[in-house]
UniProtKB/TrEMBL annotation:
It is found in: Cytoplasm. The gene is tsaD. This is tRNA N6-adenosine threonylcarbamoyltransferase. The lineage of its organism: Bacteria, Bacillati, Actinomycetota, Actinomycetes, Propionibacteriales. GO terms for biological process: tRNA threonylcarbamoyladenosine modification. Binds 1 Fe(2+) ion per subunit. GO terms for cellular component: cytoplasm. Residues 23-313 form the Gcp-like domain.
Length: 344
């Protein structure tokens, strides 16, 4: 099926077009530069930017794909979770398209879409698979039995998301927003064992209650204290070494818990998605450690890891292919949509 997908849950206006597992267009307009001076995404700014970018981004996607709107078989849209006002722009636009074109509408879960996108790169998802989703707003381990209807959370962050930790630590180190890519780059010239930062929720006691949960706020505080102590002593902060040591602490915990979860569930395939999956160290460490356990790792290319419309189209196409009924045309945007609810 030819499906157009719309994503507006945060600061990216994404419109993707796919035919089955084939990516035809992935147009993304980001308002990230407008948020940079605030050091984080400002919801009102994001909503307005989506409104301005929507029509040109739909047009750009159609041009790239070489298809006309009336050719598509279905419209898919992120129904949640995300910023309420931002989601509303996408949902309203998708409804308008579906209604005017007379095509079915699929309101889908953003997290499931981050998983489904990998089909565009590596083909059909293995059922079941274990998904590690790490972005600016989420850090979750999910058991995925069927990405169109059965997704079960095994654990998630109890405080900051992994990407949020990257962004906050980058700020501490004087690196620009969003910080993930800058830390990744700075870390290449640093030592990952320079500082032994804490690994959240890995003590024996924590593992009893939070085996597959994450915590990154203690790590962020530890980095802040370390940097402050250096500055108080009048010594320069070795940015590359701190970046590498921080990154190692995050990637160590993420990979360890993902592999433990896969082993506990008897699953041989791990899929990593979300913006932090673009991290070069995470990709290498996950591969290395999983290989030792005979577990395969799939990570989409970085451009498909961060928010985009293709991931929504990919999930929509899978729903059409599996014969799922479309969503109602009055489907709501659901800012706190549960990960277990794949379709609105
Ligand atoms: P949501 O959480 O709702 O999906 P989001 O906009 O935060 O929204 P993404 O676009 O998937 O989600 O991810 C952005 C996050 O990914 C930011 O926190 C950014 O710092 C982080 N990120 C991007 N590239 C890298 C990288 N190479 N290393 C580490 N983090 C990265
Ligand atoms: Mg984003
Ligand atoms: Fe996302």
């Amino acid at each position: 099926p030819l499906v157009l997908g719309i994503e507006t849950s945060c600061d990216e206006t994404g419109v993707g077009i796919v035919r089955g597992h084939t990516l035809l267009a992935d147009a993304v307009a980001s308002s990230v530069d407008e948020h940079a001076r605030f050091g984080g995404v400002v919801p009102e700014v994001a909503s307005r930017a989506h409104l301005e970018a929507m029509v040109p981004t739909v047009q750009r996607a159609c041009e790239t794909a070489g298809v006309a709107l009336h050719d598509v078989d279905a419209i898919a849209v992120t129904a949640g979770p995300g910023l309420a006002g931002a989601l509303l722009v996408g949902v309203a636009s998708a409804k308008a398209l579906a209604l005017s074109l007379g095509k079915p509408l699929y309101g889908v879960n953003h997290l499931a879409a981050h998983v489904a996108v990998d089909q565009l790169e590596h083909g059909a998802l293995p059922d079941p698979c274990l998904a590690l989703l790490v972005s600016g707003g989420h850090s979750s381990l999910l058991r995925v039995d069927d990405v169109t209807e059965r997704v079960t959370p095994l654990g998630s962050t109890i405080d900051d998301a992994a990407g949020e930790a990257f962004d906050k630590v980058a700020r501490l180190l004087g690196l620009p927003f969003p910080g993930g890519p800058h830390i990744d780059r700075a870390a290449r010239d640093g030592s990952s064992v320079y500082v032994d930062f804490p690994r959240g929720l890995t003590s024996r006691r924590d593992l009893e209650r939070h085996r597959f949960d994450f915590s990154f706020s203690g790590l962020k505080t530890a980095v802040a204290r370390w940097v402050e102590a250096r500055e108080a002593a009048g010594e320069p902060v070795p940015v590359a070494d701190v970046a590498a040591s921080f990154q190692e602490a995050v990637c160590d915990v993420l990979t360890r818990k993902a592999i433990d979860a896969a082993a506990a569930e008897g699953i041989d395939d791990i899929l990593i998605g979300g913006g932090v999956a673009a991290n070069s160290r995470l990709r290498v460490l996950a591969e290395e450690r999983a290989a030792q356990k005979g577990i395969r790792v799939r990570v989409p290319r970085p451009g498909l890891c961060t928010d985009n419309g293709a991931m929504v189209a990919a999930l929509g196409a899978e729903m059409v292919a599996r014969g799922r009924a479309p969503s109602a045309l009055d489907l709501p945007a659901d800012s706190s949509m549960s990960v277990e609810l794949v379709q609105a």
